[in-house]
Amino acid sequence: MANMSEYSELVIVGSGPAGLTCAIYTARSGLSPVLLVGQAPGGQLINTDTIENYPGFKSIPGYELMMNMLSQAEELGTQFIYQSLERIERGEGNRFRLSLSSAEQIVARTVVIATGATHRRLNVPGEEEFSNKGVSWCATCDGPMYRGKTVAVVGGGNTAVMEAIFLTNFAEHVFLIHRRDSLRAEKYLQDKLFSNDKIEVVWNSEIVQISGNERLNSVLLRSVIDNSERALALLGLFVAVGTTPSSGFVSDLVETDGDGYIIARDTKTSCAGVFAAGDIVSGSLKQAVFAAGQGALVSKYVEEYLGAR
Ligand code: NAP
Predict the structure, then answer these.
(1) What pTM did the predictor assign?
(2) Strand 105-113 to strand 135-136: parallel, antiparallel, or no bridges (unpaired)?
(3) Domains of the chain: total
(4) Cross-strand pairs, 110
(5) CB of 179 closer than 6 A to ligand 1?
């Protein structure tokens, strides 16, 4: 771990593709960024089995892609601090005071929030055991592995419906498991879903157990109507029950939407000097390449902001 910096022109919070791309760009511009890694480096992708939609790599393990980004940022002079951010406050002279999990503090002129969001879990037995062994949170990333197979998506929002439709490009049969008798997804998506022969909606059902051997092979469903249970055989389960933004430490400083995502226009938040990039931004595409693109964009605005002062 690098020595704690007491003052920095730029502190980047989060070590996913947005934060690391911002570090690479700003380090190349000579800014000496400090990057708060959090508890573990690499963001959500560190746990992604294989990434097949990042340009330049036909297929790359998420761990390898993120380690490449980390070492690139480090070689260029980024200072990594393996701690989490507890709080950001306005300091004197248009500066910000960041309190870390160790209780140490950094003063910064600009802050880039790139802490992303975490996928909500079902919190049922078997979910952790079969995570990345059949249980996935990203159809775009893992869907192509299920060509000709039977899979299921759980959830009733836009993401679940879009993922179910997307999965029909590969899977032979797609169950959409939802705990109610109506979807919250937008109507145009529902129309597409209901007209797709490969999709079968399982209404009023909750998953209570995820089972398998080496990999997932079935889920146990319980009816919310009469509590009856039945097993459903499938090889892939895509959990799409919403996401939780990691923005608690900054919500009183910048404007957020009703779900806690940061509202940012061209990465600029409602607080001058505080920027946001990647999945933490309200309305973001939630794809690694998009987050990396925002990491590049935010570096331009940080440099502009610092140059103008
Ligand atoms: P969401 O809208 O919050 O939907 C989550 C779904 O998961 C809901 O149907 C919910 O059921 C269900 N759910 C939650 N917890 C569950 C649990 N423990 N077990 C089973 N089911 C559970 O999340 P999202 O679909 O990820 O969308 C997030 C936001 O992004 C939304 O505002 C959405 O409109 C937006 N989005 C937009 C697009 C687009 O193209 N316009 C695409 C994707 C996402 P209930 O319905 O019963 O609550």
Answers:
(1) 0.75
(2) unpaired
(3) 2
(4) 10
(5) yes
